[in-house]
Amino acid sequence: MIEKALQGSKGYWTWIACLLAVIAVGALFYLQQWNQGLGVTGMSRDVSWGLYISQFTFLVGVAAGGLMLVLPYYLHNYKEFGRITILGEFMAIAAVLMCLMFIVADLGQPMRALNVVLYPTPQSMLFWDMIVLNGYLALNLVCGWAILHSEYKGVKYASWVKPFIYLSIPWAVSIHTVTAFLYAGLPGRDYWLTAILAPRFLASAFAAGPALLLIIALIMERNTLFKVGQVAKDKLVTIISYAAIINFFFLACEFFSAYYSQYPSKMYTKDYLFFGLERDGSIFNNLVPYMQVSVVIGVIGIVLIFMARSRKSDIMLGIACALIFLSLWIDKGLGMVLGGFVPNPYGQVTQYYPTITELGITAAIWATGFLIVTILYKVAISVKLEKEL
Predict the structure, then answer these.
(1) Cα 352 from chain centroid?
(2) Sign of torsion, CA 198 202 205 211?
(3) Residue 333: is it exposed, middle or buried by C-beta count within 10 angstroms (0-12/13-18/19+)?
(4) C-beta separation of 341 from 188 below 8 A
(5) CA 139 – CA 74 distance, rounded (Å)
(6) pTM given for the model
(7) How far apart, in whole angstroms, are the C-alpha atoms of residue 237 and residue 231?
(8) 222: pLDDT strictly greater than 80
(9) From CA 263, how far away is CA 177, in angstroms rounded?
């Protein structure tokens, strides 16, 4: 089936060429980091996790978001999701591969990744994160390709696939839960030290993943014969809306517990992220504009998505999903990780600014993810349209 990815319009190949160009530029930046080490990044002793790990954290949620398609279709026999369930599984494959690439980029030397296997430490959450990420990748590869191949042959998928599909449902929850525990298990970082972190991660995942999928589906509807179906879009809108609202509710709970109790270390980080933190006569506020924009566009996106549903406007729906996705990317892809390092255990503030090298490598990994999604979706849509015709 992979040969179907080699057939496409001029626009398709232009898109592929643009992605390959970004990947090539990022490869040059990565070569620089390979030769000179992580000193070319903006990370330091006080901010040891930067843009790479923040993107990893966000993309784990995008991968887990595919659960909101698999669960209704396979467990509750919701047939309206039949056309897009495979798209959710393929999006999860791309997202997990991007997660692994960001981890490798953060390690500096890729060979260090083998230490997790050569010297396993089950008492470490990093060990379990490696297990759940690679396991989820394998499950989606096996299930997604087996089901699509069966559809290509015009037969029902084999019975052995069903147990793996059911296993992928709790596994999707586990990848983001374990990732949340990576942060929530660090007693020296009060911003992450909260029992609500895992539920908050899952709520944002169930909004961001379906939002990105719906954006891609709307683009495909305008440029191909593939149709998602109004019922499926309405259900996705419901999932995205309520998950985004729950995520904001959890954020409000964090603010209440910090400011009502006047707990200093909890307040410091939120001050730094949302209002600016004054320490020793200096004001630290490099993330304030981004976090404030995140809240504003998130609220606007939730309002617009309800309006788009009532007016049946795909353009408004696409804008609403884009705003919600961007809001959650800022919240988890910037604020969640970087904010946890302020202040450090000694009460000092070190602001982090990514270098051009980090930005180039990050852009290349995102481009690689979109390239994987493009190829997998091209194959999946071609198979589905062929069988329908």
Answers:
(1) 22
(2) negative
(3) buried
(4) no
(5) 15
(6) 0.90
(7) 10
(8) yes
(9) 26
**What tokens were used for 137?**
């990748």
Output the 3-class SS for the chain: CHHHHHCCCHHHHHHHHHHHHHHHHHHHHHHHHHHHCHHHCCCCCCCCCCHHHHHHHHHHHHHHCCHHHHHHHHHCCCHHHCCCHHHHHHHHHHHHHHHHHHHHHHHCCHHHHHHHHHCCCCCCHHHHHHHHHHHHHHHHHHHHHHHHHHHHHCCCCCCCHHHHHHHHHHHHHHHHHHHHHHHHCCCCCCCCCCCCHHHHHHHHHHHHHHHHHHHHHHHHHHHCCCCCCHHHHHHHHHHHHHHHHHHHHHHHHHHHHHHHHCCHHHHHHHHHHHHCEEECCEEECCCHHHHHHHHHHHHHHHHHHHHHHHHCCHHHHHHHHHHHHHHHHHHHHHHHHHHCCCCCCCCCCCCCCCCHHHHHHHHHHHHHHHHHHHHHHHHHHHHHHHHHC
Copy the structure tokens of residue 52: 């790479």
d(CA 368, CA 23): 7
pLDDT value at 54 more than 90: yes
Task: Identify whether the C-beta of residue 4 lies closer than 8 Å to the C-beta of residue 379.
Answer: yes
Q: Which of 155, 226, 181, 177 is nearest to 380 (CA)?
A: 226
Q: Does residue 111 contact residue 120 with C-beta atoms inside 8 Å? A: no
Scan for tokens 């790990």, then name that residue: 53
Which residues lie below 8 Å from residue 203, measured CB to CB, with a gap of 6+? 243, 244, 246, 247, 250
pLDDT, one tens digit per residue, over 243-288 is 999 999 999 999 999 999 998 888 888 999 999 888 777 888 889 9
